[in-house]
């Protein structure tokens, strides 16, 4: 996806957000913002890849803040809230008709995609996540290609691109459904700390490596995936996949103009530019397959 | 007031806001944002005056957009909504005890200060302004120095610095109370179009010149007042005033570190940096006197 005019203030707000997570030093916050402005002045041009801009500005902010992981507490908080909800959601899924279980697990993992702190115009519901979850779960998917996604995944090779902490607990339920469908699953997490994204630490803590066939990383802490920084094995696996299941906006922004197909984007549409690009309204639960 | 790290993303959001008011041309929006980023890179430094930054960035955006008044429709909308409310509010005031009327008029004009479109984290209630107004009117002032303000104004020389359209209809009720108290009133409006601020056009349309003793302008379209651009007559009048009544955040930002006293700031605190500077919470109704 290309940068939209609306991306610049949102990115600068997010730099401010992570500066405030990282430090109480007002001068340092000022420097982080100034670094973000400097980066935007050099790089924010029509036609630039949205992910290149967001990766660059956050790396610069982290470096100025001298903090390799400003979101560490937010990640832990997301994980706590999500983990507490899982036994209930597991019952929702096992109580559903067999043909609905994949859809329900996907829906849960898309609601989990709302664990995305610092997106302008998007509030993470931490006070009453149960209520928020149940309301959205009741509403269901706004775009629902899950039957066709499952069909491609069954007995096939699935690449599952993770997004946020918290969300990953719901992803686990989808992974279980994929294994039920006899898919060979390659789980992909970020190669380094960025925003609230899942890394190998989360995989290890949750023992997800035992639930899937292979775990890979994106090779770097780029937002979504940088094709320049990704290991060749990952790109090859993506090229040979029966279906790529891509979680969240960042992975969408990274891959929407690339040639990896079939690809299914599972996300909650949390900002206008991404929603427009997908042809959906903001705040929708989207499971959209591109063949 | 000095610039705060939080000002930069907010200003850039406001440039985006006015670009979206002004044009549907995505390239032009991009150019306005890039102009804003460029301006911030050159000028956004710790210790800079907040008003210098906001004046400069909006002037640049207007110039790139080729639009001398992007907020014209928002101003008309604010005026319509406010004017429709005035007969009711006039009754509230005339129904109050005489010693409460100034306070009630001030409160109304502070609620009117919520007509401020494009401030990040602040939503202007246009759908149900009546309900919003009545709720806030019921709650009253959070900081209330109105008795002391009126004491200074009585039989004295008052400089009344206006802020937004819409709000100006409620200001008229305060002006009436000031005239009741036999004050000599100098009304000050912006010298040119900026944001939703009141200009001579509004004064003429409403016939406010007949309600006060003198009308002056700030001499330019600077946000708040630029002391460099203001006519000497205005600065002299401000120096000789029994009390300056300053409406809204921009006038506060412009004058909070200057030496014009006594000065009363009447505003709704719509952003964190201004609220902190005033020592109040966000979204408070503030009538604070500095001697």
UniProtKB/TrEMBL annotation, chains A, B:
Cited InterPro entries: ARMT-1-like_metal-bd_sf (IPR036075), ARMT1-like_metal-bd (IPR002791), PH1575-like (IPR014444)
Domain of life (superkingdom): Archaea
All copies of domain Damage-control phosphatase ARMT1-like metal-binding, residue ranges: 5-284
Database matches in SUPFAM superfamilies: AF1104-like
Descriptive protein name: Damage-control phosphatase ARMT1-like metal-binding domain-containing protein
Lineage: Archaea, Methanobacteriati, Methanobacteriota, Stenosarchaea group, Methanomicrobia
